[in-house]
Amino acid sequence: MLQDTIIEKLKAAFQIHHLEVENESHMHNVASGSESHFKVVLVSDDFNEINKVKQHQAVYAALSDELAGPVHALALHTYSHDKWLKTQLAPASPNCMGGSKK
Q1: What number of helices (H) and strands (E) belong to the chain?
Q2: pLDDT tens, residue by residue, 2-58
Q3: What does the alpha-carbon distance between residue 26 and residue 57 come to, in Å, rounded to a whole number?
């Protein structure tokens, strides 16, 4: 499963305090059973001294093969451990507005 691959690659690339990887493909105009849209909540001390752009670039680098191929969309919610302790809640993903769902 692609979701498992994403989890393993993120675990290998970051010192993780908290990780959620959710396949949200069912919320989009794709074939049943697709693995193309994912939400990632990643909490790591690796993000302590870098801004959101650099955090996301680091995740994109770790998942470059998947983003070049099967992953169409990746909703990223990255936090340092300290910021996560203050929020502990990533935003919900919006409903799909593309394709035939308009």
Answers
A1: 4, 3
A2: 999 999 999 999 999 999 999 876 565 655 655 667 899 999 999 999 999 999 999
A3: 26
Edge-to-edge order in the sheet of strand 37-44: 16-23, 37-44, 73-79
For the chain, domains (ranges, CATH) are: 2-87 (3.30.300.90)
Tokens of 20: 């959620």
- Residue with the two structure tokens 């910021």: 83
CB proximity list for 7: less than 8 A, separation 6 or greater:
19, 21
Q: Is the pTM of this model over 0.85?
A: no
- How big, in percent rounded to 5, are the helix, strand and coil portions of the chain? 45, 25, 35
